[in-house]
């Protein structure tokens, strides 16, 4: 397998964790390149569900894993996840996992600011998870961030944190009227965890590029989805990082010419967690049925996911933004019982049909989806082992997705387990 990037094409929760777990078998290295612990990847291995938030899914395949410089990391959360995976007999030693020395750390004051901001917005909340991801990326952009490399000189780390916290506490107390964060407690917290963290810190860019020079195959694991991208998504109802494939290079420290396959994960329908426009959202019994059968709850937050028909406007947008070379269709089996299916092919606004995803949120909220209707297949697909066995109407549904997106379907998932995966076109 060549160097492959896996990205979500919708608003996240497309099933990337399972596919990364599958493709990890054919990779040497797996690297996470953006986001924080506001994303969750759920894998089911031998009937057991395992959820990761920071550690790349490839760790379950006993592959060397890396957290790139584009990820913001809460060290306490990371150590908790390492302990959780270790308790499930997964090797997460420093030999198996490395964190970029250039990655930024989420600090306690980031979480405080994140929560204070959401509270202050009232009913205009964006829907952040409150984990401090946004404020951490904000500090990175304004050059006030704390990086993992800072832990290697703790006197420098302490001076830096105390200086930053003067400003943060002033902001918390005087603008949000919230409780300040005690600097001594922060220093003590990091003093206690640094000895466990330091063995994991490395120059990930150097290791990855050296590995590629030696013929190692690298899998790049994205978090969230294309339409939560800070620049290309439904701004401001987005995440705080760039989720598209181009950031795989920047967020891990490799050149873009080293990326070969770009695989987009797309549910057979569409879901979204939290606030923000969702043109194909269903508010009827069909939406409820999809939500229940698909067990649509966020892996990180536990929030109920909003469900709707497959939206080809956003899928075509994702294909263009990511230069997709292949699609993985997940949760096709969730649609098995439906009499008919709908696919959104455009948006209607002021009597005109729009085929491209608009940048203006107020315009998007006024759009009406334009649907084409397809007959359901009314057969169980969850036990199928090859593409030829699929019902004809299911094949037609998949072919229509290929036709409208201009991207071939290479893998189809019909269940949460590794075995419930059909390879239509092998690229690894």
UniProtKB/TrEMBL annotation:
Record text on cofactor binding: Binds 1 Mg(2+) ion per subunit.
Residues reported to bind GTP: 12-18, 40-42, 305, 331-333, 413-415
Keyword annotations: Cytoplasm, GTP-binding, Ligase, Magnesium, Metal-binding, Nucleotide-binding, Purine biosynthesis
Residue sites binding Mg(2+) per the record: 13, 40
EC number(s) on file: 6.3.4.4
GO MF, any single term: GTP binding
One GO cellular component, as annotated: cytoplasm
Catalytic-site annotation from UniProt: 13, 41
Residues the entry annotates as binding substrate: 299-305
Catalytic activity: IMP + L-aspartate + GTP = N(6)-(1,2-dicarboxyethyl)-AMP + GDP + phosphate + 2 H(+)
Pathway assigned in UniProt: Purine metabolism; AMP biosynthesis via de novo pathway; AMP from IMP: step 1/2
Localization per Swiss-Prot or TrEMBL: Cytoplasm
UniProt-annotated binding residues for IMP: 13-16, 38-41, 129, 143, 224, 239, 303
BP-aspect Gene Ontology terms: 'de novo' AMP biosynthetic process; IMP metabolic process
Taxonomy, superkingdom: Bacteria
PROSITE patterns, per database record: ADENYLOSUCCIN_SYN_1
Obligatory cofactor(s): Mg(2+)
Function, in words: Plays an important role in the de novo pathway of purine nucleotide biosynthesis. Catalyzes the first committed step in the biosynthesis of AMP from IMP.
Family from the record: Belongs to the adenylosuccinate synthetase family.
Binding partners and assembly: Homodimer.
The protein's name: Adenylosuccinate synthetase
